Amino acid sequence: MGVVTPERRRTEPPPPAPPQYEPPKPRRDVPWGLITLGILIIAIFGGVSWVKDVIPDIHNPFAQHTVDRSGPAVLKSIQDLQEYHAASGNFQQIVDLKSDSALPDQLLGERTLFVAVGSVDAIVDFSQIGQGAVQVSGDRRSATINLPRPEISDAQLDVGRSYVYDRDRGIFNQIGTLFGGSSDDQRALYTLAEQKIHTAAQNGSGLVPRAEENTRRMLQTLLRALGFTSVSVNFAQA
Questions:
Q1: What are phi and psi for residue 64, nearest 5 degrees?
Q2: Cβ–Cβ under 8 Å, residues 147 and 133
Q3: Under the phi-then-psi rule, with left for phi > 0, alpha for psi from -120 to 50, and beta for the rest, what region is 109?
Q4: Which of 8, 33, 87, 170 fits 211 for a cystine, CB–CB 3.0-4.6 Å?
Q5: Which helix (H) or strand (E) holds 233?
Q6: What's the Rg (C-alpha) of the chain?
Q7: DSSP 8-state class, residue 81
Q8: Does position 174 have pLDDT exceeding 80, yes or no?
Q9: What is the DSSP annotation of 201-228?
Q10: C-alpha triplet 200, 117, 74: angle, nearest 5°
Q11: Is 151 within 8 Å of 122 (Cβ atoms)?
Q12: 3-state secondary structure of 44
């Protein structure tokens, strides 16, 4: 029977566990170019600010300023006005213009919705007053004035407030705009809008009666300030 030595009684330690495999991490290149550019920009603007704090009179080399090099306005002509703008009307007109053809609208066709804003004046032309239009009594207390009927002026389109709301064009129309023609289309829209606003002012807008009333009130106030007690203003019938 053999003798068991104390060294044999010791339990041997378990073998170490094999190292776990870790996949290599993807290498990320540091964007040194972007970092250098950012540092350069910060250094430039930071340096300018620091120098301006130290030397207040130095100007920012990157600052911009606007110089108006326009010449003076040139007076072309002077005209004596003999018209009294007695009333003015502001109008908004929706122009719905559509171009048709034998082809489908997707190929050749155009529809434009244009919002037009413009104004029209009712004008009394004093240059048309002839002899005998103003009758004054012997005591200069009463006066009768006969005036022409107020006329509707041409419509003045407000380009800053007028705009194209929607426009649908066929393929061939879109190709055609590459070779010009858009300015002519816009001019046609403006012309049509002005015509429609002028027609609306003539038909039931109330501008002419308002112009007559304003003109009558203006002349009565003026002549009464001169001592007339009775002032009658009549307008010619259409």
A1: -120, 150
A2: yes
A3: left
A4: 87
A5: strand 230-235
A6: 43
A7: -
A8: no
A9: HHTT-SHHHHHHHHHHHHHHHHHHHTT-
A10: 115
A11: yes
A12: helix
> Tokens 């104004």 — which residue?
119
Position 1 confidence tier, pLDDT thresholds 50, 70, 90: very low
Residue with tokens 């009179």: 57
Q: What is the DSSP string of 116-155?
A: EEEEEEEEEEGGG--TTSEEE-TTSSEEEEEEPPPEEPPP
To which residue do tokens 């064009």 refer? 169
Tell me the pLDDT tens digit for each residue of 176-219. Answer: 565 555 556 788 889 999 999 999 999 888 999 999 999 999 99
Picking from 225, 99, 109, the residue whose alpha carbon sits closest to that of residue 169 is 109
Contact in structure between 103 and 167 (CB atoms under 8 Å): no
- For 61-106, write each residue's pLDDT tens digit: 556 778 888 878 887 777 666 888 999 999 999 988 777 666 665 6
pLDDT at position 126 is 87
In the block, residue with structure tokens 């194209």: 164
The number of angstroms, rounded, from the C-alpha of 124 to the middle of its chain's C-alpha atoms is: 32
Residue 108 φ/ψ, nearest 5 degrees: -140, 110
Do you know the residue count of the chain? 238
